[in-house]
Amino acid sequence: MEFVSEIYSDIGIVKKVNQDAAMVRQADTDLGKVLLAVICDGMGGLQSGELASGTVITEMSDWFEHVVPGLVYRKAAPAEVKQSFARVVNRLNDRIRRYGEKNGIRLGTTMAALLLVKDAYYICNIGDSRIYYLNGQIRQMTRDQSYIQQEIDMGRMTAEEARRSSQRNVLLQCIGVSETVAPDFYIGEFEPASAFLLCTDGFVHVLSGEEMLAELKPELLKDEADIRARLERLTETVKARKEEDNITSMLICARQGDPAAALI
């Protein structure tokens, strides 16, 4: 499996600092390309949110470089991959929380991470950044760890009420705020000619799934420049609709063989 990816991030129309952070790493292995993509939405005063999200990106990049190769080469079972994800997340949570306590500040970050090995995906999610799967349709792979999602699940709030709620940014989980963190994990298989969309909540507040799919259908995509242009167009739509948060998105396209040859 080969992958084509692109990231687009915008500070938005209100905030003075972009506290989102994202990265994608690839490596060649005997099993083919292995990819890790991570997107974070930091929170905290001044530069604190930017520090939290940047710390997660740095640590996850290090995990990909030094830990993931061992998981791949010994063909680790899904449970072992999950445990490895959990260890690095707990280490990050302790590190950021202790930094905040030492400096008398409150900071934290969401994290949505996607690991692709052969035709398998492994997702680790904390907070309300999201991962979608696009393959003829669009499907949200992650569940928001947020107050409004909890209210929807309990039948106390409709989706429309959630979109208008002043509490839509209240999280039940994030990295760096509490002593413990409980990530959600999702494991499954994906197909060639499909794509994963990772995004912070600022990207999705005022966009529908149908709008995202119409712009990002895998069969429409030409190359990295085309993917970036499409993410930028969606971001400009979000800004025109007066979204006030930072806006970050990333698209990962899966292809059999040479990705450049496969893109139309």
Q: How would you classify the helix and strand content by structural class?
A: alpha+beta
CATH topology: Phosphatase 2c, domain 1
Q: H/E element string? A: EEEHHHEEEEEHHEEHHHEH
Helical segment tally? 9
Q: Can you count the beta strands?
A: 11
| Low-confidence residue ranges | none
* CATH domain class: Alpha Beta
- The portion of residues assigned to helices is 25-40%
State the distance separating the first and last CA atoms.
17 Å
CA-based gyration radius = 18 Å
CATH superfamily: PPM-type phosphatase domain
Q: Which overall shape is indicated by the principal axes computed on the Cα atoms?
A: globular
Could you please describe the fold and organization of this structure?
This protein is α+β, with helices and mostly antiparallel strands and 264 residues long. Helix content is 37%, strand content 30%. It has a single domain, classed as Phosphatase 2c, domain 1 (4-Layer Sandwich). It has 9 helices and 11 strands. The strands form 2 sheets. Strands 2, 3, 4, 5, 6 and 9 form a 6-stranded antiparallel β-sheet that branches. It has a 5-stranded antiparallel β-sheet with strand order 1-11-10-7-8. Strand 5 (111-117) and strand 6 form a beta hairpin. The protein is globular and about 45 Å long.
